[in-house]
Amino acid sequence: MDATSQRFLMCRPTYFAVDYAINPWMDPTAPVDVDLAVRQWEQLRQTYRDLGHTVEEIAPVPGLPDMVFAANGGTVIDGKAMAVQFRDPQRADEAPAYRAWFEAAGFEMHDPKHVNEGEGDILLAGDVLLAGTGFRTAHASHAQLQEVFGYPVVTMQLVDPRFYHLDTALTVLDERTVAYLPEAFSPGSRAVLRRLFPDAVHATLADAEVFGLNAVSDGRHVVLPAQATGLAAKLRDRGYETIGVDLSELRKAGGGPKCCTLRLRQGKASQ
Question: Which residues lie closer than 8 Å to 101 by C-beta, 6 or more apart?
Fold first, then answer.
């Protein structure tokens, strides 16, 4: 297994809070330790750097506590960036902030015609775009993704509100392999996943509930929540090297390592 050097975009959780509930994990009455959230985020960033990856940062904006979840800020493939349109008004102002960053960084910009929550629901697996729908990203957006990026799009129907984004229920390990929670998908989507990825790793509900599938892989190393011990063991059995990180504070808002990490793909050579 060969690791591929990656370029990531992240956003420091300076203004992190749980002031509203837009997914089942969020409880505005529960206390949040912002300093701990920042320290955990910094450890994730350092983990990427220790693995040789490049980490870019976008400046956090006051009043946008979920901006730390950079994966929702866009989809970037082959030097093209698709901006986002959030379902919930609480996150709407994140979209122009991320769009401005992509434009300043020189990406070819495309604006969404429908609700589209970026890499939270859109994952490149080899030469196929897996596109989630059911809770956030609109199914109508999938056609635009195919036109912009030129990859065949395979719709994934999510059915469990706890796993409201595709990246909470499935992680791409390399161009041929994924790990996923079967019960998070409709019967038809499970059948498609079996056809596309017959050697996939199946996660347990216990590991998915600690956001074990909200992981980041470079093809060899898999960065995932430290609490997902069962999934980590399965991945090591397959030959991957796992690195556990603790993002327990950010999980109070329904996020994990992948939520905090947007992959910036400059071109085909960087995939």
Answer: 9, 58, 73
